[in-house]
Amino acid sequence: xxxxxxxxVWGRHMKLIIATFExxxxxxxxxxxxxxxxxxxxxxxxxxxF
Amino acid sequence: xxxxxKEYLKKFFVVIAVILFxxxxxxxxxRVEGRVPTNVCEGEYEPFEGTYRLRKNFVKVxxxxxxxxxxxxxxxxxxxxxxxxxxxNNKPYAVFLGDSMTFGIGVxxxxxxxxxxxxLAMEHNGVxxxxxxxPGHVFSDQEKLFMHFMKHVVSKPSYVLICTNDDFLFKxxxxxxNLFIKDGYLLSKKNRHLAYIRKIxxxxxxxxxxxxxxxxxxxxxxxxxxxxxxxxxFEVYSxxxxxxxxxxxxxxxxxxxxxxxxxxRSGIVLIYLYIPRADSxxxxxxxxxxxxxPADYDPEYYENLIRKHCLSKxxxxxxxxxxxxxxxxxxxxxxxxxxxxxxxxxxxxxxEYIFNELVGKGLFHQSAI
Lengths: 50, 369
Prior knowledge:
The structure holds two protein chains of two kinds.
Chain A: H1 2-37
Chain B: H1 2-32, E1 45-48, E2 51-54, E3 59-63, E4 68-73, E5 79-80, E6 93-97, H2 100-103, H3 113-125, E7 128-131, H4 139-152, E8 159-164, H5 166-170, E9 179-182, E10 185-188, H6 192-204, H7 206-222, H8 230-235, H9 242-266, E11 269-274, H10 283-290, H11 301-313, E12 316-319, H12 321-329, E13 335-336, E14 339-342, H13 344-360
Parallel strand pairs in B: 6-7, 6-8, 8-11, 11-12
Antiparallel strand pairs in B: 1-2, 3-4, 4-5, 9-10, 13-14
Helix pairs in contact in B: 3-13, 6-7
């Protein structure tokens, strides 16, 4: 029942599903790369972690 | 028209379902990789006499992208290397007062400068050490905590070391009325529900925790060119409010004087330390990068204020500016990349220096042996 429904949704919205999936992972890996590789010239002045 | 809306709604739900699926994949992937969330149900703070303090006998592991460290508090609710009792009866001991820099955010107790000092002091003359510093505390909060402690202990400390920095002195009148504590978490009263949900999410979900921190770094670099909190950083050193600062300075020094009188009456050796923040040592460079006029700022204002005060009152004063400046000139990194607190290296250098200075100046003479 659920499997058939998923199949139906997949058939109808395949392009949309693939595009969302790809965009999510591209955004995630870009954010990770930026966060890990780039040096901040002026650091973040955070002193108290409330 | 309704059919078109229905079709868009369907597409919207498909997108949401795919994002949720991706988040689930990310959550599993991060946990397999070892990037687990904090997984702590409660925070380390509790309300205390109109302000807040650390919970007693409490353990908390903090996991952040830049560092991980564990907080243990002893029977008094002060940061220590383990939970439980501290036997101070008939032993000389030193107390450190300060904020998050003295508390040692980002490193384990043994690696904090107070921890380094503690080890050296124990080896040298068996003097015990208590770290009363609490993140975000200003002098009045620390004074309350110290006075409360004095009512409940048999023996008084031999030494009190007040660790000052520009932020600690600038914010001395900061009110805690806007703060709210829920389940041990310190939250701002404004948006407290949202802030609490965020705390819970970052404690439970690796995906949320990772995405939030990556996004914060990204935002800081591309949408906030001066770095997060830059304006409040520069404001501390601004000369624009000279008159206001003069009044504030007088109130601050009066507050110190009351405490000094108490220490003098109790036979406690009081020592002021000035430990500049790592960022303030690169102040000129940051001013240039931000295009601000150096004539509008005085990065040594608070150091000079405390130095003059100590000189007039004949109280011991130790500044760590030259020591830390030398480290910066040798291109040594003193802070964490994503947080302005001192890293392990800086803590070690500071702890050793304070100890050597006290011994060298003959201030650290009492012995338990």
